[in-house]
Specification:
Strand order of the largest sheet: 5-4-3-2-1-6-7
Number of helices: 6
Distance between the termini: 71 Å
Strand content: 5-15%
Number of strands: 7
Largest sheet: 7 strands, parallel
Shape: elongated
Radius of gyration: 30 Å
Low-confidence stretches: 18-38, 44-50
Mean pLDDT: 83
């Protein structure tokens, strides 16, 4: 089965950037109709004047300042389904990495964030020590809690972020990174390798992402993720989502599966009882073979 989204390595093979045709809101490809003269009965389009920019003054020997480009940042997690789909080959994007799971994996990174303060704890030393040594060699901006682990680190502005956004939704490294990106004036945020789909640690981190996605969108910042990631899926609306046809179907399916499991567990319990009985019978036969076989 083919890939849904072209990876960085796929782009490198062709030497050409992948530029898919953008989809319309209904999922179709745009169909452009050429302009035409108004037909009988059609209103004549109103002509509007376009303001003309003043002519650029060219000073000999002085290059005009380039137009500032909007800040676009891609945050990279470790989920393999979408991590390498990030725009590593597009210099208009800043790549922000994190996590020891991305060490020596990402083709490019423009900044690194390691906000854990427990890398030297005994239970973390197996990966923490080599990771810290790797971080100390970075020449890109490195943000950490302080310089205790790495002298080349910049202290992350935690208090500034808490003052700006409150302290209730910093539930993951990506929450801190999104907040920092917003504070830096980002215009577009893309998330790769970020699912937060497990039932233990990451499911508790999703609310922080929802909050900062909302904070970004309230400021007109575009937030995207590839189809291979499920981070953009919103939570259900309490009291409402379960009474939709899909919500009702999910509940019915869950009950069906649990009933089948209950039946199988009952069968297994009966089999376990029979197995135990027969294992005892085999032991009896073995006893008679060993002790009484010479009689007769």
């Amino acid at each position: 089965m083919g890939k849904i989204t072209e990876t960085f390595n796929d782009k490198a093979k062709t030497g050409k950037p992948f530029q898919p045709v953008p989809l319309m809101t209904n999922g179709a490809r745009p169909h452009v109709i050429a302009p035409h003269e108004p037909l009988p009965g059609e209103p004549t389009p109103e002509l509007k004047s376009t303001p003309v920019a003043p002519p650029m003054v060219v000073v000999p020997g002085v290059q005009p300042a380039p137009e500032p480009q909007p800040l676009k940042i891609a945050l990279i997690g470790t989920a393999p389904s979408s991590r390498l789909l990030a725009p590593f080959g597009d210099p208009s994007w800043k790549i922000w990495g994190c996590s020891p799971g991305n060490m020596n994996v990402l083709p490019r990174a423009d900044a690194w964030f390691e906000l854990h303060g427990n890398l030297h704890w005994p239970e973390n030393k197996s990966y923490g020590d080599p990771y810290i040594n790797w971080l100390r060699q970075l020449t890109i901006p490195l943000y950490m809690q302080d310089q205790n682990y790495c002298p080349n680190a910049t202290t992350f502005p935690k208090e500034d972020m808490v003052k700006m956004f409150g302290r209730d939704f910093f539930t993951s490294s990506f929450s801190w990174m999104m907040a920092f990106a917003i504070s830096q004036g980002v215009k577009e945020l893309a998330l790769y390798g970020i699912d937060m789909a497990s039932r233990d640690e990451y499911i508790l981190q999703r609310p922080g992402f929802y909050f900062f996605r909302h904070m970004a969108e309230m400021r007109g910042i575009k937030v995207t993720a590839p189809n291979e990631s499920d981070i953009m899926q919103p939570p259900g609306l309490y009291g409402y989502s379960e009474v939709t046809p899909f919500g009702r179907k999910i509940l019915a399916r869950e009950q069906e599966i649990k009933q089948r499991l209950d039946g199988m567990r009952a069968d297994r319990a009966k089999l376990d009882h029979n197995i135990t009985y027969l294992e005892g019978a085999v032991e009896d036969v073995d006893y008679f073979k060993s002790i009484w076989l010479g009689q007769g």
